[in-house]
Amino acid sequence: MKAGLEVHQQLATGKLFCRCPCELSEEVGARFVRRLRAAGGEERAIDPAARFQAACDLLYRYESTPTSCLVEMDEEPPHALDPIALESALIVAHMVGARIVDEIQVMRKIVVDGSNTSGFQRTALIAVGGEIRVDGKAIGIESICLEEDAARKVAESPGEITYRLDRLGIPLLEVATSPDIASGAEARRVAEEIGALLRATPRVRRGIGTVREDLNVSIEGGHRVEIKGVQELRWIEAYVAAEAERQRVLLEVRDRLRAQGARPPGTEFADLGPALGAVASGPLARKGGSGGAILGVRLPGFAGCLRSPPGTDHRLGRELAERARRFGIGGLLHSDELPGYGLGPAEIDRVRAALDAGPADGFLLVADPSASRAEAALRAAVERARAAIDGIPGETRDPLPEGRTRYSRPLSGRHRMYPETDVPPIVVSPDDRRRAVEKVPERPGELEDRLARTFAVPRDLAHQLVVAGESVRFEELVRRGRAPVAVARLLTQELPLVEADAAPSGRPLPIDQLDSALRGAEEGRYAKEALVQVLAALRAGTASPEAAAADLGLSGLSDAELDRIVQEIVDRNEPLVRARKGDAFQPLMGDVMKVVRGRRDGQEIARRLRAAIDRVAAATS
């Protein structure tokens, strides 16, 4: 297996080709609609991904926000490329030893899935040929690019997609590796290392959705497949393993097809409405007639090859269905899953007769109220069936929960690019290079060593701080007098729990609020265990940690109040204490915590409870 990564990190600058802020917004202004068509690239040929997307014939609805302008609407030419974003890219290029190009040419990359109002994404090559080391292994960096982020998809319905323009135009720094990665675990480590490098600048945006990884995976005999837009590092291993297994299964299916003498299916489709009549249930029900259609095609020599082989849930039938469903059809069936879905043996015999299909043949059925849509969907499924005899086609796939993926579109190629004529080329001067070198930060390994040594935090916490890009806030909070270990745990363990549930437009908590929240716990105004609740309240708009603690009923207890509560619970359970002595601690601790959780430190509560239990046990002895 071989794998490569493309890490896309949003930068905390202005937008790339206008000066709008890089903030998401739920406030919607103007709305408009577009349809997009595929255009030829610099060599005049049309990219296969663009052709496929345009054939889906979708309507795209757009919502502007206070953080978007006429540039995002494609009603005004792009402004000059943001200089801070460019300098950030030059800094990262120096960090990985990449060769910076002499002149930057902004290109238009044709994308007609609606995520760009113009039908293209602006991108610029900054540097090539760097390297990072992960666990002692050299991983090549093929390219570093600057590009616009896409619009944010907010709704989807049959025949149309709605995008919001707040994210469109945010600068993305793209770092692409060579195919040097040999496992899913290594892919995750490489992603962590690149992420730490980018966050070390520190000019990157933080939070959910600000960094995404594209995984390129192939196995021997297979083909490069791109899994686009993975947002969680913990799923990288699962996606790589699942894709390698998918390709392995499909190569086995290819070998079976060849052994059975399978031949490419034709593109002449049969109208099966007359043969089937009214289907009572399933995806074919009520699709024929009234302008609709039930279409079928014979798959010569495909019998038995469309279902899942033993021990896996990957199957060729799903591959065909994924292609067809991109056209919004109402139903697709293949021969290996029948009888069923409203079709019995008699109906299957009529289908085989109409398609002239023998026992060694499979077949596909597609149904939809729109005859033209049914034909387009079946044509896409047939194209995938023809490719199955050769092996595995290169394609782009979308990540799904639990490590699964689904087909998105064909792989893009060189025909999607052409020069952006509205942005002049940018010469990278010696002064630009010198300034970038002067601003190169500590490398992650060096930073990790310094944090562990200087602030006496455990090595694993220092590593987490660097990977999370929290070293700057860590050092600032420690400078303000907060305990280093408590700060490190706040930034790497407690704060992520709060930010994981934040809205897309949510901003990081100001460092003054983090300082106040930590100080409140240190001074005993509420327990350290209550920090997550306090931080969540601050993020929701509560004015101060003290107000949050009061609202949540977390105001601290005095020593006398705590001793009284503990003694009452011990007295109430005196028979248990006399019988079990120290072993009574565990059940009584649960009772105490029900009353005082979040109001005093857990270790202090435990110490006072043990003392009360020991007094009763001693009196019994």
Distance between the termini: 69 Å
Low-pLDDT residue intervals, each spanning 5 or more residues: none
Number of helices: 20
Beta strands, count: 21
**Proportion of residues in helical segments:** 25-40%
User: Structural class given helices, strands, pairing?
Assistant: alpha+beta
Would you tell me the overall average pLDDT?
89
Largest sheet: 11 strands, mixed
* Percentage beta strand: 15-25%
Number of domains: 4
> What integer value in Å does the Rg equal?
30 Å
What does this molecule look like?
By secondary structure, the chain is of the alpha+beta class. The protein has four domains: 2-224 and 413-419, no CATH class; 260-392, 2-Layer Sandwich (Gyrase A, domain 2), CATH 3.30.1360; 444-551, no CATH class; 559-620. It is 39% helix and 20% strand. The strands form four sheets. Strands 1, 4, 6, 7, 8, 11, 12, 13, 18, 19 and 20 form an eleven-stranded mixed sheet that branches. Helix 17 packs across helix 19, helix 17 crosses helix 20 and helix 19 packs across helix 20.
Summarize the structure.
The chain is α+β, with helices and mostly antiparallel strands and 621 residues long. It is 39% helix and 20% strand.
Question: How are the elements arranged and paired?
Answer:
Layout: E1 2-10, E2 31-34, H1 48-55, E3 59-63, H2 83-95, E4 99-100, E5 103-104, E6 106-110, E7 120-134, E8 137-148, E9 152-157, E10 160-164, E11 171-177, H3 184-199, E12 211-218, E13 225-230, H4 236-259, E14 270-271, H5 273-276, E15 293-299, H6 316-325, E16 331-334, H7 345-355, E17 362-368, H8 371-390, E18 395-399, E19 405-410, E20 417-419, E21 426-427, H9 430-438, H10 444-455, H11 459-467, H12 471-479, H13 484-499, H14 511-522, H15 531-539, H16 545-551, H17 559-572, H18 574-580, H19 585-596, H20 602-620
Parallel strand pairs: 3-10, 13-18
Antiparallel strand pairs: 1-11, 1-12, 2-3, 4-7, 5-21, 6-7, 6-20, 7-8, 8-11, 9-10, 12-13, 14-15, 15-17, 16-17, 18-19
Helix pairs in contact: 2-9, 3-4, 6-8, 10-11, 11-13, 12-13, 13-15, 14-15, 17-19, 17-20, 19-20
